[in-house]
Amino acid sequence: MKDTYQSITEASPEVLFKDRNSKFFGYAFPIKTEEEANEHLAELKAKHHKARHWCYAWQLGKEEDNQRYRANDDGEPSNSAGMPIYGQIQAFDVTNILVVVVRYFGGVKLGVGGLINAYRTAAQMALEESNIIKRTIDEVYVVKFDYPEMNKVMQVIKQNNLNVIDQKLEIDCQIFISVRKKDAEDIYSKFDNTYKVEIKKLEI
Predict the structure, then answer these.
(1) Is residue 121 located within the same domain as residue 157?
(2) Residues 91 and 162 reside in one and the same domain
(3) Is the pLDDT of residue 204 over 70?
(4) Continuous segment of H or E residues that includes residue 40
(5) Which of 26, 53, 67, 164 is 20 to 30 A from residue 91's alpha carbon, by CA?
(6) CA–CA dist 69, 80 (Å, integer)
């Protein structure tokens, strides 16, 4: 089971590719929502308000079966900008990411082949300048129990080196844990089979 994915930790530096007087500025941003992508696009449109095109592609989702993407040519010939940018997102195997290429027209038409090369290259340069890291896909659970069961629960947490992300330790206790996906079923059963302990998966 694949339970890792790659993304970038922060926005890339601005990169620049030139072809026959046209300038292509490339950017990559980590995102978690489509709204974040739209915010970055609005900022770039304000920064480069004299540009001709703001072409982009984004992908969201940690697992292949629930990933979604969008590619936008923003007035360039069909599939000459957005898809070449998206192709680089796929080539670098990254997700939760937005890549934008801003074009200033230089007065000379590049043709579809030239555009594909320019947008692909600018996207590639932005991703090459990005800090790409591998992360695990985790499940989050809440473990519920009464205070007298504390030792049993903490023993399971300690033995399995589990990541506690929050806890409420009162008469009715709750501990929130993050578990790597490949281990999730095993950890669930350990708590589920512990007397007077309840475990529930949280949708995040």
Answers:
(1) no
(2) no
(3) no
(4) helix 34-47
(5) 53
(6) 17
Same domain flag for 41 and 116: yes
**Which of 102, 134, 166 corresponds to the end of one domain?**
134
Residue that has been written with the tokens 């970055």 in this structure: 40
Q: What is the percent of the chain where pLDDT is above 90?
A: 88
Structure tokens at 31: 């995102």
| pTM for the whole structure | 0.81
Last residue of a domain, one of 110, 134, 158: 134
Token pair for residue 127?
Answer: 């991703």
Same domain, 170 and 128: no
Q: Domains in the chain: how many in total?
A: 2
Per-residue model confidence as pLDDT tens digits over 32-48: 999 999 999 999 999 99
- What residue numbers bound the domain in which 156 lies? 137-202
Pairing of strands 172-180, 163-168: antiparallel
122 and 151 fall within a common domain = no
* Sign for the pseudo-dihedral over CA of 46, 51, 53, 59: negative
pLDDT tens per residue across span 110-160: 999 999 999 999 999 999 999 999 999 999 999 999 999 999 999 999 999
Cβ atoms 29, 97 nearer than 8 A: yes
Is 74:53 a contact under the CB 8 Å cutoff? yes
Q: What is the mean pLDDT of residues 13-28?
A: 97
Q: Are 149 and 156 in contact (CB under 8 A)?
A: no
Shared domain for 125 and 182, answered yes or no, is no
